[in-house]
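Moderator note: this is an archived Q&A kept for reference. The question asked for a predicted structure of one protein chain; the sequence and the answer are reproduced below.
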Amino acid sequence: GKPATRADLEKVATQSEVEITTIGRKSGQPHAKPIWFVYDQGHFYVQAGKEGKSDWYLNLKKNPQLTLKIATVSFTGKAKFIDDPKETERIHDLFSSKYIRARVSSLIGSSVGRGKAVEIELPF
């Protein structure tokens, strides 16, 4: 299909999961995983639990290129790691409000609103 546009992404921004495909830091093989995301004012964020020990996060540290797929919309991006505590807190708040509002907090327990924040730089 044709490359996704910002309008395509905005249509699926309320979905709860994005499937990210990273390149394995040891295997060199593509590694797909569904995770939660927030899309806010043109910015796309994901967060890694386990203090950043998630496989996909470690993969991105080695190779920041990734592919994202939400419903039928696919696009590529590049990870930008966020270290600023204030910005991290703001992103955690976005996650909390999105997922707690979705009433899935019982499924996620306390892990939402924590974790290492990553902004995905999009091609559009």
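Archived answer notes: Strands lie at 17-23, 30-40, 43-48, 65-70, 73-81, 116-121.
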